[in-house]
Amino acid sequence: VAELRLPVLVFALEVLVVVLYSVFVTYDDQTNALLQNNKTQPLENTVYQDYPFFADIQVMIFIGFGCLLAFFRRYGFGGMVFNFLTATFAIQWAILVQGFFHFYYDGQIHLGVINLINAEFACAVVLISFGAVLGKTSPVQLLVMALLEVPVFGVTEWIVVEHLKINDAGGSILIHLFACYFGLGVTFILYRPSLNEGHSKEGTTYQSDLLSVLGTLFLWVFWPSFNCALTLRGDDQHRAILHTFIGLSASTLTAFALSALLSKNGKLSMADVQNVTLAGGVTVGASVDMMISPAVAYVLGMLGCTACMLGYKYLSPFLARRLRLQDQCGIHNLHGLTGLISTIAGICAILLASEETYGPSLYQTFSYRAPQQGDPQLGELQKLIPGLEAGLGLGGVLTGLVLKLPYLASPTDEFCFDDELFFNVPLDEDQASESQEPRCSETQITNHQYILQSKPADDVITS
Amino acid sequence: VAELRLPVLVFALEVLVVVLYSVFVTYDDQTNALLQNNKTQPLENTVYQDYPFFADIQVMIFIGFGCLLAFFRRYGFGGMVFNFLTATFAIQWAILVQGFFHFYYDGQIHLGVINLINAEFACAVVLISFGAVLGKTSPVQLLVMALLEVPVFGVTEWIVVEHLKINDAGGSILIHLFACYFGLGVTFILYRPSLNEGHSKEGTTYQSDLLSVLGTLFLWVFWPSFNCALTLRGDDQHRAILHTFIGLSASTLTAFALSALLSKNGKLSMADVQNVTLAGGVTVGASVDMMISPAVAYVLGMLGCTACMLGYKYLSPFLARRLRLQDQCGIHNLHGLTGLISTIAGICAILLASEETYGPSLYQTFSYRAPQQGDPQLGELQKLIPGLEAGLGLGGVLTGLVLKLPYLASPTDEFCFDDELFFNVPLDEDQASESQEPRCSETQITNHQYILQSKPADDVITS
Amino acid sequence: VAELRLPVLVFALEVLVVVLYSVFVTYDDQTNALLQNNKTQPLENTVYQDYPFFADIQVMIFIGFGCLLAFFRRYGFGGMVFNFLTATFAIQWAILVQGFFHFYYDGQIHLGVINLINAEFACAVVLISFGAVLGKTSPVQLLVMALLEVPVFGVTEWIVVEHLKINDAGGSILIHLFACYFGLGVTFILYRPSLNEGHSKEGTTYQSDLLSVLGTLFLWVFWPSFNCALTLRGDDQHRAILHTFIGLSASTLTAFALSALLSKNGKLSMADVQNVTLAGGVTVGASVDMMISPAVAYVLGMLGCTACMLGYKYLSPFLARRLRLQDQCGIHNLHGLTGLISTIAGICAILLASEETYGPSLYQTFSYRAPQQGDPQLGELQKLIPGLEAGLGLGGVLTGLVLKLPYLASPTDEFCFDDELFFNVPLDEDQASESQEPRCSETQITNHQYILQSKPADDVITS
């Protein structure tokens, strides 16, 4: 029966995870008591380098994304709570998947806080893709999407990082581009023609817009931690923080200017404040730890923001109507276009890198994971990007096909963007508080809600 | 007169605190300028180890708890603001009480950020107990509760930590069990039979549920800092972070599955998302720094969550009706049952600890404050638990009796869960914004509110 | 045309900033790869000392201030979003202005995270002044205010810190007093007599009050980071954290007592909870790193809070009616009166400082930037304060005159405190959700809103 789908899937995933954890996951040499001795300096444990960034990224994932995605009028629970559910599972799963690729030796995955940071990056990928299908998917579908997307990401990450050795500190190439094209692939398959005519529940409210801006602000404030968490310690990390701050702050100003300029009446749109302000964080990503100069970080923020804004204004409607790409949160604008600009900027920064600018640390920064000028791998990378997009989109398409399978509790068009389908929603304050004092339209509303609540879930999901 | 009760009590408490501070509180050797010399390394000051965890716990106490407790429809101010008031006083008071037990020498309490961390733990105890009586108590009662609970906790902590030397890094035994049974004792005495039939203001709204989930997310994100703040530095602290994250993330998935499974219509309940997801943080507490393995942390999260959920579903209604235990936020489920599981897990982890697993650091970790296998203190601990519950409950019962004294401004049944009694509440937006355009039921509502606001507080509190 | 004012100004400012960045701003020796060598210890980079405090202050600026200023019923977008816009620009601009005064050598401004911390302090100044004119200014006016206020602050800071060498760790003298008197100067010029009779949109709602308290809590929790970020490392910073916490927590209790005591019906006012609780953070500021003792920090918190509360109750109405000082958020109470108390306390703490209390570190703490007893500079400082107030007020008056220039899109009296003027505001939930089920007053409301939205901006702003 329909009600059992979510519990059964979750329990199955939990059993899978706990069995794999018990067989494969052990402590790494920073968490294993057995490997400490009287020469170990407790305060030199890597936890003190990694945990502050991990905590910041946790705030971004659970609170930043959670609030940002709660912008729909009647899908606040869905946005915030499905984000919580999906993120939690994606991290657990990524610990295993990335563990096999990056932290596996002696027959075991070795675990420390550094694995959690990596897993949160994989989780961010899933949450970005979630943005493309927000409000149109059941929690069962979201968990299946995470189940499939994390391994595809794990393989891609392994190829890009280990094999091509691309320097991509802020993850603009890997995280944002991957998440965007994968998400577009999924939403291509989950196309719902009726939604192109608009949906009565697709709007926002005053409160939901404020909550969503709050999410934006959390993402904005902690984005430097996200972009610098995996860079080299020292001046590299210091630059990553500076550039991210500068890029974000340039894109924020630009977003305000463009939002007023491109609206019909010169007023600001909250959707722009919620999304476009963040574009700079992505655009500086691929070159965030390089010596690009503060001014260039500023220009990258402006460029990324402009591309993102024009995308929202002109490209998204086109994609939705002509290419069946209904991109609910506009991830193609905020993560795709900006990711492409970031990639180009990253390649330029690598080409322009010289010992004159970097001194002896050139080889340290770039031996880390970047191809040198003239390196055949660089050409490989340049050729790779278009193919990558297609490839990632394909992964998304295949995942979308799985999500269209019956039994995954996809909501009907009518119940898109509607918490009633998945949550016991409280009666509204004004409806409940004056239940003794009938208001003109109250009877109808209340009836309407009771009907919804008593309707068996089967009738309103496509199975 | 009734209006003066809160100011008079607060001023009296402030005078008490400031006199005791001026007589007894001085700087510790990390904050006293006189004790620094030219060999002092400023960057080795303990403030850099303690402050990050302190700041995280501050967020949990003031923002996490504050939002979580704001879930009632018309008691959002009360939940968030009384939490603020009670927490602030409890910390000030705990600095003195714990100071006498743990930081007292040379006739003075010596103060540093480490004292603040300890005081926030005592404060968490008070706030958990507050959960049992949320909406049914006046701020005067809450301050008196903090005034009495902190010293009882201080004595218990001193016995458990100093005398029994129990390893209880995450505080599951001390903090959660103490807070639960004390709170149940209080609510037992403050029993209000009429509330068993439900109360018209006991529900939530869409907005209050979202705000409360936001509080949950802050607690969730920073819980690793709470559980690791007082563990040994180095790998112990690293493991505490990992286990807390894993335990929480297992209990979160389980909470979603059980919420859907146990509801009538297969839908998720926001109360479960707000509370049950957090169970894993408590369950891993007592063994959080030990070598329990990631998989066991996962299992502990699942077990704790299951116990917590079944408690909400079956035990709480029983306790309320049969045993006069009206546990408003279900602290017996989230802190009591999970605390018991955590204690058992902690004892097992101690019994199973061996040099094979820990290496030479075994003696360091457990000499810290844990009994060894065969140690008579361990038997003592095992015998202690049931007695502890009764003892703590007794402290709560006595406190409850004090709270029932006249002059403490306890709200009448009718004004439970209602901000009107203690706050100047703004007119609702829809009521106020169209005051020129009469709506059908407006006149009545407005009158109703003005009546409330002009009513002297005496009439609606039991004095 | 009116719609172009904001975009044109923002683009002009961006071009200005990016040109100046590209010509003048380079990396400092902690961020410049060229200056690292094989003796550089990456983990000793100052980013690890500065970034945690920077991140905390970011939360205060963007989230704390943002939520706190969102308390008006229909100006939540304005409060939160204009705070975002103004803060972003003020920081960019302060990096340049302060850079020329403090970080300029070899013909360049040298940039690291420490510059960002300083710039956020300058930004806090602008945001405090913004509080005086909240709801009565267009974003264009706010940007112009930031453009003018930051350089005036930069010069004042340079005089006070470099020349007078005042120890003002928490910035109570510089930041709070400056911001207050500058803001009062601005609002003096922007006086709107009609607002003294009250404004239909000046109230709060249940939700907006909660959001604003959330902002207060973020400011409260991270205030220790603000007050200690620029103190000497080690015990000085440790004391700054302790004193700030103690001062805030004393002022919080006092605020609750006074709020109940001074209200007509003995109930608490949310405006007091939102503002007066924070007074202690300012009052301890000027002596925050000195050996003032915990009890004195407590007393300072109580005193600051009392002055602040009495200011709200008695002084603000007087200032508004008699002196044309409409101080919307009461910054004269929260930053002016408390800043004066803090200054006096700071002077006393300097006068009382002795080698007996501080040991050899006396010279270190006070050589940093404080005059010694008997030092002529101290007398200079004492004489300076009254002149400073007048001087700062004058800067504000001149800025206010600029803001009154035509073309800055100042809202008409009717559209003060109203998001409709600057934002595309979503229809309210209850209006939108039942658009098929007409409610009694719906037709009028909807029409009213459409009229607003289609009205050209020119008609409702004074140009």
Protein model, in words:
Chains A, B, C: Functions as an ammonia transporter. May play a role in the elimination of ammonia in the gill. Chains A, B, C: Keywords: Ammonia transport, Cell membrane, Glycoprotein, Membrane, Transmembrane, Transmembrane helix, Transport. Chains A, B, C: Residues 18-353 form the Ammonium transporter AmtB-like domain. Chains A, B, C: This is Ammonium transporter AmtB-like domain-containing protein. The structure is a homotrimer of 463-residue chains. With 463 residues, chain A is an all-alpha fold. Chain A has helices at 5-24, 47-68, 76-102, 113-132, 139-164, 172-189, 206-228, 235-262, 270-275, 279-283, 294-322, 331-352, 355-358, 361-369, 376-403, 429-433, 442-454; strands at 25-27, 104-105, 108-111, 410-411, 461-462. In chain A, the strands form 2 sheets. A 3-stranded mixed beta sheet of chain A has the order 1-3-2. Mean pLDDT of chain A is 87; it is low at 432-459. Chains in contact: A-B, A-C, B-C.
